[in-house]
Amino acid sequence: MSRLFNYTKVAIIIIFFHVCFFSTLPIMANNRATDPAVATSEDLLQLLVEEIKPERLHVIVDHPPNGSNVIGHLYLAAKNAELGGVRIASLEVEAMDVQLAPVENDRKQGAPPNKYKIESTLLTYCFAKLTEKDLNDSVHKKQFENDEDQWKELLFDFGSESLYAKGLITVDWLFTFDVLLELTGELTLERGKEIWLSDYTLSVNNRSVPQFVARKAIQRLQPLLDMDRFPFPVFLKQLVLTEEELTIATRARPDPFQGISLFHPSSWRPESAATDYGQDNPE
């Protein structure tokens, strides 16, 4: 009798814990879905749109962010996006183990509007193409306030092996006048994140202007591109300049894969990752 009583007690205890555990699963799942500290695919898409400001964007992930806000594998292809403050024709990125982190959204302190940031990646590949127009538009946006050298009408011209540029600077030296500067030089990668003018020859239309004034004006342009604020950590290894475009890349080029696709705008769909962003389509 006592043995039967003990079996009964054990059975009741097992049933009690079984009911308690499984009845809390919906609550746990609901908390997981609404937990603001856990990112969603929509949060990731919003982050990327805010950071690179693309006209069109295709993102592929192997899975949504998990409970630790990690995405195992990510690929993106963008048209007319922003890279290091420069508007570019096309951009591709592939990253592994992308760690997202919440951002305190305090507008008073100038925090970004998105709720998350990319804190780290295990590996990142990048490939981007810039045109003359992309570079010229970026340079025109630069302001040189409170400086004796003020650029005007500056234009860059891509060559097969070198870069040519000319423009006017307003110089306040003894009196104020405009100086025409012309230069021919090369583009080089610095720190794996910046593009600089280097090994350039400088021509000044007014020989009475000291060379240091002209060179100081050139330094105000440097670097032409800076990727320190790019949301993905990258280290560029390749730079190729042609008469049509400038391409920059990591040691390997990003490669799309089969996964979950996200789009911006939401109604847009690419023909394919290869034809819409690859070299076969210069649109």
Q: How much strand content do the residues show?
A: 35-45%
Main sheet, how many strands, which sense, barrel?
8 strands, antiparallel
Strand tally: 13
Backbone shape: elongated
Q: Give the end-to-end Cα distance, rounded to a whole number of Å.
A: 86 Å
Low-confidence stretches: 16-34, 273-283
Order of helices and strands: HHEEEEEHEEEEHEEEEH
Instruction: Give the rounded overall mean pLDDT.
Output: 79
What can you see in these coordinates?
24% of the residues lie in helices and 40% in strands. The protein has five helices and 13 strands. The strands form two sheets. Strands 1, 2, 3, 4, 5, 11, 12 and 13 form an eight-stranded antiparallel beta sheet that branches. A five-stranded antiparallel beta sheet has the order 6-7-8-9-10. The chain is elongated, with a radius of gyration of 27 Å. 24% of the residues are buried.
